[in-house]
Amino acid sequence: MLTDERRMAIFEYIKKNFSATTEELAEHFNVSTSTIRRDLENLASKKLIKRTHKGAVINSPHAESSFLVNYNYMREEKKLIAKKAMAFINNDEFIALSGGTTSYMLATELINSELQGLKIITNSINIATLILESKKDFVLIMAGGIPRKGSYECVGEFTLRTIRAFNIDKFFMGVNGISIEGGISFSSFDEASVAQEFMLRSKEKYVIADHTKFEVTKPARVAEIAEVDAIITDAIPEETKFSYTQLGAKII
Q1: 3-59 has which CATH code?
Q2: Residue 109 scores a pLDDT above 70
Q3: What is the pLDDT of residues 16-74, one digit of tens each?
Q4: Which part of the chain has CATH 3.40.50.1360?
Q5: Given Cys at both, which of 78, 94, 135, 220 links 186, Cβ 3.0 to 4.6 Å?
Q6: Which of 243, 245, 93, 86 is nearest to 168 (CA)?
Q7: Rounded to whole angstroms, how far apart are CA atoms 23 and 36?
Q8: φ, ψ at 151 (rounded to 5°)
Q9: Bridge-partner residues for 172, per DSSP?
Q10: Tens digits of per-residue pLDDT, 208-219?
Q11: pTM here?
Q12: What is residue 190's predicted lDDT score, i.e. its pLDDT?
């Protein structure tokens, strides 16, 4: 397991259990306690966890879906992905942005770009607020509904009805898992339903996800690998890339 992958797994373990000791983590991940201490210091520096005398605790009461917690994880990688995604967006297009921190990074790139005439639809309160408070004159459509605590994403029938009213050029989708066996997947069934509706209404579909999302399967399956036009990521091993391209995926 690579260092970044192990740290993500440690973070997920602490999120699930709310706390963990250094010895417990060392045994679970089959590494030394000194390695675990370095991993915990790294996660603490990103404000994902809080260090304790014996180990660590999660840094948020809503950690499972906390936007602020996830925003600080793999932040530079997400910025790189957002910059790559910008190459696929042109003036006067109608684009959709899912919720999530990578999509938020893309929205940040958009409002600081020279692009004009965009129409943007999103179910993310955070992204909608970012665009509204910017100086850009983009047309913003909020697919409102029932907001989820922590992720600030609207879900439910009202959200789906709004999306169904439009024909969208391109959909940029942050996800929780990408795997050969599990396809493109989400942790939340409600958020997965919104993503599926966006996919149905969009001509082109792009996954935007950092390398820690690969070889991960979550409960809600949204699409097969070959159903998206491209997966935009930061960096994955060549052998992993080859496996996905064999299924028809375009990895960028």
Answers
A1: 1.10.10.10
A2: yes
A3: 777 899 999 999 999 999 999 999 999 988 878 888 888 998 775 444 446 666 766 67
A4: 71-245
A5: 220
A6: 93
A7: 8
A8: -90, -20
A9: 97, 206
A10: 999 889 989 999
A11: 0.76
A12: 95
Listed in order, the ranges of the chain carrying CATH 1.10.10.10 are 3-59
Query: DSSP code of 148?
Result: P
| Both structure tokens of 31 | 């590494």
For residue 16, the model assigns a pLDDT of 76
Rounded Cα distance, 225 and 112, in Å = 31
CA–CA separation, 219 and 25 (whole Å):
25
Cα 225 versus chain centre, distance: 16
As a whole number, the mean pLDDT across the chain is 91
CATH: 3.40.50.1360, 2.20.28.120, 3.20.20.70, 3.40.630.10. Which one for 71-245?
Answer: 3.40.50.1360
The secondary structure of 30-71 as a DSSP string is: TS-HHHHHHHHHHHHHTTSEEE-SSEEEES-TTGGG-HHHHH
**Contact present, 197 and 221 (Cβ < 8 Å):** no
